[in-house]
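Write out this protein's structure.
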Amino acid sequence: MSTHSDPGGAESRVPGLLRLAAAYAWRILAVGIVVQAAFSLLGQFHRIAVAVFLGLVVTAVLRPVADLLARLVPRPVAVAVALVGGIVLVLGVLALAGETVAGQRTGLEREFVSGIDRIERRLEDPPFRLDPGALDDIQSRVGELLSSHRSTVISTALSGASRLLEVLTVLALALFCSVFFIHSGGRQWRWFCAQMPPAARERVAVAGGAAWRTFTGYTHGILLVAATNAVLVGIALSLLRVPLAVPLALLEFFAAFIPLIGSPIALAVAAVVALASKGALTAVLVVALIVVIGQLEGHVLHPVVMSWAVRLHPVVVALSVVGGAVAAGVVGAVVAVPLVAVVWSVLQALRERRQRGA
């Protein structure tokens, strides 16, 4: 009887499906470790990453304007005019919103006080039957809490001031980067491709071109969607005579950069303002506005306006937004969808290049 051992016997007794799963498992684990390390590294330089992202957004918006102006004036002058014009436009809109708040402040205080009293009376009536002293007790407890934690409130305010300084620093760096991206971004990219190994230059150039086309398309599309939503919200709130129509429209504009969830949150704030200032009927109309704008954005604006960018499935968009928010908060929610769209377009471009080569 033969007594020699079969070196492949143990492996042959393992089912093939289990071997395949084990082979993929360690590869997925290795990729996960690399991704985690990359995110940890980026987390140490997240301000620089945000500044570069904002610089690319500014470049995607203003570079066509600079290219148009460069036909009439020298390139540096065209870049300066485009950037200064953009800054003046943004500051003008913010100043208009601030002027609106300042001009309506006295009336708003009176309307909000009466609106809160009206809400309290409704909560005391059926079917809520809230104890009349409950809200007063809540207000007194909030006052006591603020008084007892005054030092914490002050330190939080100081922390907010330092955070504001960080934001201004990021904006300044983004503006600095956008100057060079708008002026000579194409030349910089060609120089970068020339530094790659000869075998990889064409792939890098194809990937970069696809990424930039998708990013600019997404940026232009989301800006148009946000502007359309803001105009519709501003007109509707003005017709309903809801106070702070301009600031709420501006809030809707910025919230639209977070797909799926940004607009409903901004309009929910508008509904609360309408409830406190104009009553339940106006608030119900604002809620109806949430539904109408949501349907318009989901079924008309995004399919039509975003057709020049990569169109992602709503499930992919939702998972990207939630994943980005979990990973990096509001900034992650804003960046996630364009990042996924860019990666997907790069993969498609490289796949098409391989197919043409084959």
